C-alpha cells in the first residue's frame, strides 16, 4: 500500500515566504491520495525552544490551515527524521504501507532525512521534488547559485534507491 507523508507544512515555516505554487502542488498530491483512499500522514515538527516559531504552544507549530483538514494521521517529531523516536513506523506497519511518497518543507533537512530513513527501513520511496520547499537559500549556506531542491533531487536520484520525480512525472506514473 502507498501512503503520503506531508512533512512540516506548518504556519511558522509557511509564513517565511511565498509558497503558493508549492502549496498548490502539495494539495493536488494530497487530493489524489484522498480520492483513492490512500493514507495521508502529516508530520509536525515540534521545538521546545521558547523562541522557536515551531514551539509546541505557538500558532507557528500548527499545520497550515490550507492543508490541515486533509490529515488522516498526525505524527509529531523533534528531529529532521520523521522516524526517530516517533510513532511513524508503528503507524505504517499497522496500515501495511510499503511505498512512501514525500512532500513538504525543509527539503534538505526533514524531507531528505525522512526519505533516507524510510529507505533504510525497507520502504520504496518516491520524493516529489517540486512539492517540497525550504526556507533556506543559497545565502544561508554561503553557496552562490545553489538551488536546494535541484541539489537534493540530484543527490537522492543519483543514489538510485530513492525515486525522484517532479509533479508532472508523478501524475503520469501514479495517477
Automatic annotation (TrEMBL):
Keyword Transcription regulation recorded: no
Top-level taxonomic group: Bacteria
GO MF term set: hydrolase activity
InterPro entries from the UniProt entry: Isochorismatase-like_dom, Isochorismatase-like_hydrls, Isochorismatase-like_sf
Keyword field: Hydrolase
Stretch forming the signal peptide: none
Domain (Isochorismatase-like): residue spans on this chain: 3-139
Keyword hit for Hydrolase: yes
Family: Belongs to the isochorismatase family.
PANTHER family on file: ISOCHORISMATASE, PEROXYUREIDOACRYLATE/UREIDOACRYLATE AMIDOHYDROLASE-RELATED
Record's protein name: Isochorismatase
Organism: Brevibacillus fortis
Amino acid at each position: 500500500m502507498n501512503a503520503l507523508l506531508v512533512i512540516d507544512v506548518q504556519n511558522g515555516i509557511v509564513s517565511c515566504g511565498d509558497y503558493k505554487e508549492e502549496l498548490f502542488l502539495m494539495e493536488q498530491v494530497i487530493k489524489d491520495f484522498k480520492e483513492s483512499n490512500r493514507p495521508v500522514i502529516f508530520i509536525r515538527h515540534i521545538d521546545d525552544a521558547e523562541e522557536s516559531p515551531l514551539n509546541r504552544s505557538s500558532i507557528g507549530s500548527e499545520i497550515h490551515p490550507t492543508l490541515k483538514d486533509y490529515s488522516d494521521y498526525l505524527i509529531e517529531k523533534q528531529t529532521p527524521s520523521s522516524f526517530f523516536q516517533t510513532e511513524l513506523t508503528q503507524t505504517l506497519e499497522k496500515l501495511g504501507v510499503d511505498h512512501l511518497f514525500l512532500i513538504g518543507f525543509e527539503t534538505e533537512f526533514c524531507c531528505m532525512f525522512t526519505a533516507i530513513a524510510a529507505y533504510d527501513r525497507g520502504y520504496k520511496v518516491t520524493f516529489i521534488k517540486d512539492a517540497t520547499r525550504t526556507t533556506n537559500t543559497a545565502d544561508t549556506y554561503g553557496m552562490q547559485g545553489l538551488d536546494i531542491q535541484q541539489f537534493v533531487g540530484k543527490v537522492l536520484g543519483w543514489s538510485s534507491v530513492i525515486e525522484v520525480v517532479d509533479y508532472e512525472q508523478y501524475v503520469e506514473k501514479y495517477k
